[in-house]
Amino acid sequence: MDELGVAVHFVKENQIISNDSRASENFVHGIKVLMARNYSQNLGEETLKGMLQKARAGLYPSFAPAGYRNTEGPGGRRIIVPDGDAPTVRLFFEEFATGRHSLKVLANHAKVQGWTIRGHNPGTSTLHMILRKRIYTGDFDWNGVTYKGSHEPLVSRDTWDRVQKCFDQRMETKQHRTPRDFAYSGFVRCGHCGCQLVGELKKQRYVYYHCTGHRGKCAEPYTREEAMRDQFAASLRELTIPPGVLQWLQETVTESDLNERAARDREVKRLDEQARRIDGKLDAMYDDRLEGRISPEMYDRKAQDLRAQALGLRQRIEEVRISQPAPVAQAIDLMDL
User: Fold this and answer.
1) Which residues is 197 bridged to in the sheet?
2) 328-336 and 23-56 helices cross at what angle (nearest 10)?
3) Rounded distance between C-alpha atoms, residue 251 and residue 243, angstroms
4) What is the pLDDT of residues 7-48, one digit of tens each?
């Protein structure tokens, strides 16, 4: 924002943040950004926790892969069942398990035979993804752990093992070096030319920072990471907040927290009302079916769509409810320090 020279208008807070904003306003804005980031990260953690619970219960906690489809199971929980592409997936496993085909040959063979996945001719990347998935054996991998699934398998474990063996025999092992992350790279700028500083490892032991030189050759010397760390520590030690500003900041953060909680309650209420309306439609449709005003086939088709919508709404409600607000009390305690 500083570099672009733009002003950001926050309608809800009736506030404008720009280069002309006071330091206290920028500070509060930064705190709110951190709180929002914490809320988002916490929501992600709670969502992952719920998905892990489903995995432990034998339910695949994501979108159905090729050969399966998502549907509503007992208790309203989303499960996966075989769909119309299941026979084609079995053919791919059986053909590749013979060891006579590469992925490219198998993709061309599928195109000639008219074997499609979700209406499209699968390429080599799609075939690789399908043939590597353990989920087709009845088990599935989730976050590096293999779970016993409750869904119907499409291939035997023996067939899947033979396919993996074919892959292992064809694959050439390649070693990739993982680039190292440096603590201050990307957000410290050169005092001479304004370009960013980047870290570099010397003699496999020492970390130095230097200017990228994007605006021409820069004469600034390399800087040791220890020196950078000491400068940061010294700047932080000098950081003080006047008591009046601190009190105002704490009140603002508390008010923002109350607003966020109220917004979450409104969102839950809105989603719940939508789910209740769908339940009402299902009840009315059931009465129409009993009275013969609609056919059983139409009822089944419409009811399946409505149940899927209601399931999605209730999952969203659960996500909002289990998400925890940002730790405001902890933030205020840190300010007191």
Assistant:
1) 211
2) 140
3) 12
4) 777 766 667 777 777 777 777 777 877 777 776 666 667 777
DSSP 187: T
Distance CA 95, CA 163 (A): 9
Give 111-119's long-range contacts (Cβ < 8 A, gap of 24+).
115/88, 115/91, 116/85, 116/88, 117/66, 117/67, 117/85, 117/88, 117/89, 118/66, 118/85
Helix, strand, coil fractions of the chain, as percent rounded to 5 = 55, 10, 35
Tokens of 250: 């704490």
Q: Which two tokens stand for residue 163?
A: 């396919």
Mean pLDDT computed over every residue of the chain: 82
Per-residue tokens: 263: 């917004």
**b/e code 70-81 from CB counts within 10 Å (16+ = b):** beeeeeeebbbe
Q: CA nearest 28: which of 238, 218, 197, 252?
A: 252
Residue 91 to residues 113, 118, 132, 326: CA-CA distances in angstroms? 11, 15, 14, 50
Residue 189 per-residue DSSP state: B
| Contact present, 274 and 311 (Cβ < 8 Å) | no
Q: Which residue has the tokens 């924002």?
A: 1
